[in-house]
Amino acid sequence: MTTLLLTHADLIVPMDDQHSRIPDGAVFIRDRVIERVGPTADLPNAADRVIDARGCLVMPGLINTHHHLYQTLTRAVPGAQNAELFTWLRTLYPIWANLTSEAVYVSALTGLAELILSGCTTASDHLYIFPNDVTLDDEIRAAREIGIRFHATRGSMSRGESQGGLPPDRVVESEEGILLDTRRVIEAYHDPGRYAMLRIAVAPCSPFSVTEDLMRESARLARAYGVRLHTHLAETKDEELYCLQTVGKRPVAYAEALGWLGNDVWYAHGVHVAQDEVTQLAQTRTGVAHCPSSNMRLASGIAPVRAFLDAGVPVGIGVDGSASNDSSHLLSEARMAMLLQRVLGGPAALSAEEALWAATRGGAEVLGRDDIGVLAPGKAADLIALRLDTLGLAGGAIHDPLAAAIFCAPQTVDLSIVNGRVIVERGQLLTIDLPAVIEQHNRCSLSLLSRPFQ
Predict the structure, then answer these.
(1) Residue 190, domain extent
(2) Is the same domain home to 133 and 227?
(3) Helix 237-247 vs helix 85-96: angle between axes, to the nearest 10 degrees?
């Protein structure tokens, strides 16, 4: 057994139920589990490795609840820069049809590296397009190499244009093939145990890209295996109109009719929901991944996060795809969530602590976990440290370090520990050769866009 001690942190914010603040704090870790958290003077003074955290804010690692990692390959693509969701998708589907296994693998490394350096220690990703030789295994390999805790969702699209859907027929799959491969990845990879580094969820893409039958069968399959369910829902007015025209129901009512409400379900976005639907989500403990930057980028609207929280809806933060956000900076996304709610509800609509709570405790609940998102004995040893003596925090961290982490310029982490393993130290990612990955990623991106669209 190995031990690790962080000591003399300027401030530890455990994100516990007591809303504790621990100056001159310490964390004692044994193997992959937190054993003690408290003032430095009260903890052991020796371990196999001791890290001096003076000058740092220490808190739980952030949790990303929605992403499309492959989209790092198509950031800022001309033709999709000033489009709403449906036009944006129609522009990009033909490009994504050229994806390869290598491209998905290297884009996952790239996006996960950006997440990690922005404070993320657990990430969920939604891969829903599987052209050529692409499999979910490509992302899983990347996550294992880089060292992040990973919730891979096996997405799918089965309703092409010929069936009244949005995606071109050439990028959809057969429903039999989707369900068969979903079973395969669950059986091969899903770990239901405490402190699991890898879990699988079932994730048909959206109401306008899958059939009702696939939604129902996906729910049955997920519940038979005891895994979670994820999809996009209530993201745009166009989606709402599509649901009304095709099935005569608003998106939440449509999801309910298909068995897609419950504490094992979380939606990406939830922008266009009525108050009675907010209540319904709260009563069923259906979660929402709030993706503010993407919603602004595509002019989709502002999710009613304050109403969600007041009603008791589980809310996490998601950076969403890197072609609709063009960034995977999770701390920045938490900041954006705070600021955007203030546009809706005034300067006290969402506090810095509430935004970080959504990015930690909220994210853990959305992903169905009680072993991450908080620094406490018996919890997974996932934590981050931000230096407080940086230019961006000057004049802020001396007053309120936690608030400064959100109000001031978004920082990168000085230290990241995942599952008891140091993966970022002195601001450097230790697990991959990042410059080489970026070079390979850019080559893949150029190749993707230079191929003829079929």
Answers:
(1) 62-366
(2) yes
(3) 90
Q: Is the pLDDT of residue 453 over 60?
A: no
pLDDT grade for 451, boundaries at 50, 70 and 90: confident
Confidence band of 262 (pLDDT split at 50, 70, 90):
very high
Q: Identify whether residues 326 and 394 lie together within a single domain.
A: no
Inter-axis angle of helices 101-117 and 136-146, to 10 degrees?
Answer: 40
Q: Is the pLDDT of residue 342 over 60?
A: yes
First-to-last C-alpha distance (Å) of the chain: 55
Q: Give the integer Cα–Cα distance in Å for 352 and 199.
A: 30
Tokens coding 445: 């991106």
Q: Are 269 and 289 in contact (CB under 8 A)?
A: yes
The answer to whether position 184 is within a domain reads yes
Considering the domain architecture, whether residues 265 and 360 belong to the same structural domain is answered as: yes
User: Which tokens go with 205?
Assistant: 């893409």
Number of domains the chain is built from: 2
Q: Beta-carbon neighbour count of residue 322 at 10 Å? A: 24
Mean pLDDT computed over every residue of the chain: 97
Quote the CA–CA distance of 254 and 211 in Å, as a whole number: 12
CATH number, position 166: 3.20.20.140
pLDDT at 272 over 60: yes
Q: What is the CATH number of the domain that holds 50?
A: 2.30.40.10
